[in-house]
Fold:
Amino acid sequence: MKNIESESGERPIPDCCMCGKSCRNDETGWHHGHNPDPFCTPEGRCCDECNKLVVAYRIQKFNELEQEPTDG
Structure:
């Protein structure tokens, strides 16, 4: 994680644990990234672009679980 301070001087802006780019987002003002689970440790953060992959993967896994036959 780079020590780039956010504009308000709060916690540092993290680098994406998936692609290495900054999680800084000047469009929305949210500079703290997203939860990258299951791709990185929970302490890591991912950028907006990589978060699209994370969300798509989670939806895919959810749909696979919904399609599994149940016993009974």
